[in-house]
Amino acid sequence: MASPALFEQAETQWNLDKLYADLAEAKREVVPHARSHELTELERTRLRGLLLGYSPADIADYQCVVEGTVEVSLSNGIYRYVEALTGRDRTSLESWRDVATWLQAAGYSAQQVAINWSQMPDIPKLYGREAELTQLKDWILANPSPKSKPSPSARLIAINGPAGIGKTSLSIALAKTIQSEFEGVIWQSLRYRPKLEDLLNQWLVQLPDATAHSPTGASEPVNCYDQLTVLMDYLRDHRCLVILDNFETLLTGGSFMGEYESGYEAYGELLRRIGEQQHQSCVLVTSREGSRDMPKSRASSSPIRHLDLAGLKPQAAMEILKMEQLEETGKSHWSMLISQYRGNPLMLRIVAMTIHELFEGNVRQFLGQRMTLFGDIKYLINQQYERLSSEEQDILVHLADAAEPVPLESLTQPYRLDAVKGLLGRSLIEKSSAGFTLIPVVMEYVRHHLP
Ligand SMILES: Nc1ncnc2c1ncn2[C@@H]1O[C@H](COP(=O)(O)OP(=O)(O)OP(=O)(O)O)[C@@H](O)[C@H]1O
Ligand SMILES: [Mg+2]
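A: This is the predicted complex of the input protein with magnesium ion.
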């Protein structure tokens, strides 16, 4: 028989009373004909065990029962109630760890401060990206790989890559798996270009006792740079994960990469302080473009890390085509399609929907049209083209006119090396031993769609 006191330490970390009450409501939905909807003592005990990080096997050990008994009762009970409570599909829970992660994201953890966490976009199933997730986790949690020396945990990480490559999706998947390691988590989309002082104002009122860190002792710091000092003190004393999504919206188009729009320069100071000062938090920035405040050091001792996100590997990209129910006209056609779009998941989803609508799902027929650029894909490329400097645009035209790869020497005269780097960084051009070329969609855009 279960002891009601078992796993009672969960009390200090979770809002158990509210959780029991809300799960009872969820249970009413899942088993409407049950005599009572209150959680049983056994359900409460096992829930507390999961919340403390005990696996079903551990819980079975503590309760001196066989593991299968715990598994079955969780599958018929707590797992289903948690799915209902957090608005997920029935049987979408894949691991017992999801219970704590989902309930934490839903705000039931007593300790964690979660700012704008519920504003994270809901992402469909993520295919591939295992290596990237492992790399990011190793950087943030400072797990040394078997071959390398231990390195300090990353304070600032940039995920860079072109539109639709999956930066936001990857950062969300990562955040969900590691959020329990942090005292505070902040999700911040920069899509609508908030001023840094407004953001800091919002965050600091939600971070408990943050203003107590104010060096002047004033309850409200006076300007943006004072606010930043208060934030930095907080990030030093509390381990937080901050995600800034769509950083490129703060950078100017039409010039070389990394300049801030007027009025947004303070974000540069934020990145500089995050990278340079000692603290125990991690700020993750997703951006289509690099910023000059994120030097690209490859040294493993650097607390600043970069992940240049490339397209999906063929296996993962095929899963997207399968999901869109394209006809399997032969593996080579699918491979050709994936290669044309360089494994960009958003482009593959758009093209798959078009093939479905216009070619009845037949990839071979679509490829026969020899057309890669249309609708939203054209819009994505156009968006990126418009933000280029005139020198970068000239290089694209030069490459589109050339019938074969162009070596660097022919590009840098009279062009600047920065322009070539900028285009590579935006994944609009590719480098091989023979020289530089445009990726196919950009080639079609420059040759046939430029006004
Ligand atoms: N690994 C993946 N598996 C399946 N779908 C994916 C994957 N990565 C991204 N997607 C899908 O591709 C689309 C674009 O992804 P996402 O928004 O993460 O790209 P992004 O790099 O953040 O783009 P942007 O630069 O516009 O912000 C989304 O619909 C997303 O669901
Ligand atoms: Mg994004």
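Residues 37 and 338 are 50 Å apart (CA to CA). The pocket of magnesium ion (ligand 2) is lined by residues 167-168, 245-246, 286 (CB under 6 Å).
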